[in-house]
Amino acid sequence: MTSTAKRDTYTPESLLAVAVEVFIERGYDGTSMEHLSKAAGISKSSIYHHVRGKEELLHRAVSRALNGLFGVLDEEGAREGRAVDRLEYVTRRSTEVLMADLPYVTLLLRVRGNTDTERWAMERRRQFDHRVALLLTQAAADGDIRSDVDARLATRLLFGMINSVSEWYRPTARGPHSGAEVADAVVAMAFAGLRLP
Amino acid sequence: MTSTAKRDTYTPESLLAVAVEVFIERGYDGTSMEHLSKAAGISKSSIYHHVRGKEELLHRAVSRALNGLFGVLDEEGAREGRAVDRLEYVTRRSTEVLMADLPYVTLLLRVRGNTDTERWAMERRRQFDHRVALLLTQAAADGDIRSDVDARLATRLLFGMINSVSEWYRPTARGPHSGAEVADAVVAMAFAGLRLP
């Protein structure tokens, strides 16, 4: 395959998928355009044909993850009904988004804030967490969830559990647990806990 | 201060503390003896006076974390009583060990397995998780915890929640949550869940 033919097979979408894998493996800071060029098998100038640079790739990648997560908050199950049920809905759907967009959400979770895009992504994550903390506060005020755990702390632990799925979940038929099994388990543990009454 | 005076103030313990911070910041792979020398403010030969190289520092650091975690399993609360209570004890104490030895456990959680020491640490972590999964299986067999979540999956989610504390907990008086508050919240969420009956 000539380099021209290779380049022609690349779309902004497939280039993004490769870039995300490299960012996760080497860290965003540790990734150069040279690394991206090698991983994608196309020249740097071909990459510049698609994007202005690696920060634009990062922006597109974390945007995809953030759009998935914020999209959950706009769904009917997150907008209507008792706060505790909306919270449970958001918990399940956030877990599903993480598994469906695994590399993008994994990258979002690892962003640490050295560039404008990273700081923007961290700020958006904080806004998302804040929206969930508000739901939690409302559910506690309704008397539907325990009020002995601070809402911000509970939100951190809830998403600590959800986000930890990114460390071992792999969407293959041979993975130890199916996506549905994982989402059910997260909801069961977060809302009902391990101990039987 | 002369470099001799500086060197004399270093102990294996304080050198280890500096090395762990550098490993966490740069990644173990990305850390050279030069980086360690600069961060510690002592010459490379002074470091070699204490240790054979950076892998020995990694080994000492993750050993400290692993000894803390396995030590929990030897405590009376983890050995005696019903499995569900032993599991709850291990959950609380693992959270406390993480907060008490925060940088060491954080480093352990980030180890990825390119050297013998990293592979050994990952294997020891798996052994620890396996011990907890056995407790969980026993508690389910006793009818004390839910049996609709696979024990291995439940262990992963449980430690996903516990270990996520390393991402934001800082043991300062000005931290948003005290260590006791965090340990209580982890136990409450993991065993009783958020939703009130």
List the helices and strands and how they pair.
The structure is a homodimer of 197-residue chains.
Chain A: H1 3-9, H2 12-26, H3 33-40, H4 44-50, H5 54-74, H6 76-79, H7 83-100, H8 102-110, H9 116-141, H10 151-164, H11 179-192
Helix pairs in contact in A: 2-3, 2-5, 2-8, 5-7, 5-8, 5-9, 7-8, 7-9, 7-10, 7-11, 9-10
InterPro entries (chains A, B): Homeodomain-like_sf (IPR009057), HTH-type_TetR-like_transc_reg (IPR050109), HTH_TetR (IPR001647), KstR2_TetR_C (IPR041490), Tet_transcr_reg_TetR-rel_C_sf (IPR036271)
Pfam family, one (chains A, B): TetR_N
Keywords (chains A, B): DNA-binding, Transcription, Transcription regulation
Describe the structure in your own words.
The structure is a homodimer of 197-residue chains. Chain A is mostly helical and 197 residues long. Chain A has 2 domains: 3-51, Arc Repressor Mutant, subunit A, CATH 1.10.10.60; 61-192, Tetracycline Repressor, domain 2, CATH 1.10.357.10. In chain A, 73% of the residues lie in helices and 0% in strands. Chain A has helices at 3-9, 12-26, 33-40, 44-50, 54-74, 76-79, 83-100, 102-110, 116-141, 151-164, 179-192. The termini of chain A are far apart. The model of chain A is unreliable at 1-7 (pLDDT under 50). The A-B interface holds A 27, 30, 84, 87-88, 136, 139, 143-146, 148-150, 152-154, 156-161, 163-165, 167-168, 176-177, 181-182, 184-186, 188-197 and B 27, 30, 84, 87-88, 136, 139, 143-146, 148-150, 152-154, 156-161, 163-165, 167-168, 176-177, 181-182, 184-186, 188-197.
